[in-house]
């Protein structure tokens, strides 16, 4: 049974990424988003200002809150659980969660239209963006989803045209570390594995399945990565417990330990800035193949085009260095 508020508005059905048919209001204006990365999809679709409840925080994602300042006024929770009664009082139109979120059944029992979202490669990310646009139900959202997907496809094709010819010997072994304490890496079957391979590398942790998998430092020594990319917020290898132990690794010897850029969301993870990540990673791994790419300009263009925000060159450089916005003087 639906609440009178939602019963009066529920006019459409959308199939979420878990395959569930969800009845959503014809006009979606108030959104609770319980998946950290999904905020970037809503912002890309021009709907960031519709988020009235968030699991993100300015200290964790300062660029997100700078570029979408309305988030500073949203209900903010620690963890990924909202109080259903609070969402009902706030007249929430829809709830987005990551697939498998344990609170989904509770939200649905409270008659809150709830959609589970998920993607682990570019194809499923494009589908998830189109599904989100369908939930929003506006021509603008649909158009922005199509434009983003075209942008992503174009850059995938341009990069693939150059990296597909690389031999196995020309593809460096790339280890993506998401956490140094404890030591966690991203393996196969992930978006991270997808962009590593597209950019012309091989995943040093390819034998591991899934995201954020804990491994031993001894295993890293066995893998002998040529490149190490460290996720935003993980700290630096030089200040970790493994600084001495990893000195013998080719990546350390060749000074190829890099911090991953982080903007609205960490580029390496599950947000729309993955379209910038593939350009950054391809040029870092194979600068000779991409001599004309100006990643600072590409970053500025992307943020203007998809987030409606004009970055200065200095701001773009800070994002590329995984630094927060500069403090106002």
UniProtKB/TrEMBL annotation:
The organism's place on the tree of life at top rank: Bacteria
InterPro entries for the chain: ABC_Transporter_SBP, ABC_transptr_periplasmic_BD
SUPFAM superfamilies membership: Helical backbone' metal receptor (SSF53807)
Domain called Fe/B12 periplasmic-binding: residue spans: 30-293
Alphabetical list of PANTHER family matching this protein: MOLYBDATE-BINDING PROTEIN MOLA, VITAMIN B12-BINDING PROTEIN
Annotated protein name in UniProt: ABC transporter substrate-binding protein
Origin species: Rouxiella badensis
């Amino acid at each position: 049974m639906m609440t009178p508020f939602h019963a009066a508005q529920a006019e459409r059905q959308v199939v979420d990424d878990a395959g569930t048919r969800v009845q959503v209001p014809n006009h979606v204006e108030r959104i609770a988003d319980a998946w950290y990365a999904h905020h970037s999809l809503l912002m890309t679709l021009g709907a960031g200002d519709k988020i009235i409840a968030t699991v993100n925080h300015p200290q964790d994602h300062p660029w997100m809150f700078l570029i979408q300042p309305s988030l500073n006024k949203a209900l903010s929770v620690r963890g990924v659980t909202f109080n259903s009664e609070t969402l009902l009082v706030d007249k929430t139109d829809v709830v987005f969660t990551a697939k498998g979120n344990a609170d989904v059944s509770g939200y649905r029992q409270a008659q809150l239209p709830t959609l589970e979202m998920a993607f682990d490669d570019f194809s499923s990310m494009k589908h998830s963006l189109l599904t989100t646009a369908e939930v929003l139900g506006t021509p603008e959202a649909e158009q922005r989803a199509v434009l983003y997907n075209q942008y992503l496809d174009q850059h995938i094709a341009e990069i693939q045209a150059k990296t597909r010819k690389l031999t196995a010997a020309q593809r460096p072994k790339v280890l993506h570390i998401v956490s140094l304490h404890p030591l966690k890496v991203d393996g196969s079957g992930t978006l991270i594995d997808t962009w590593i391979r597209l950019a012309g590398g091989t995943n040093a942790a390819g034998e591991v399945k899934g995201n954020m998998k804990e491994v031993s430092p001894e295993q890293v020594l066995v893998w002998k990565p040529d490149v190490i990319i460290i996720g935003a917020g993980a700290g630096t290898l030089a200040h970790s417990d493994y600084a001495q132990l990893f000195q013998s690794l080719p990546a350390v010897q060749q000074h190829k330990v890099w911090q991953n850029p982080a903007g609205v969301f960490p580029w390496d993870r599950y947000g729309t800035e993955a379209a910038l990540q593939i350009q950054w990673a391809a040029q870092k791994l194979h600068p000779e193949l991409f001599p004309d790419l100006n990643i600072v300009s590409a970053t500025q263009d992307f943020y203007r085009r998809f987030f409606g925000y004009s970055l200065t060159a200095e701001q773009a450089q800070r994002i590329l260095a995984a630094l927060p916005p500069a403090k106002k003087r």
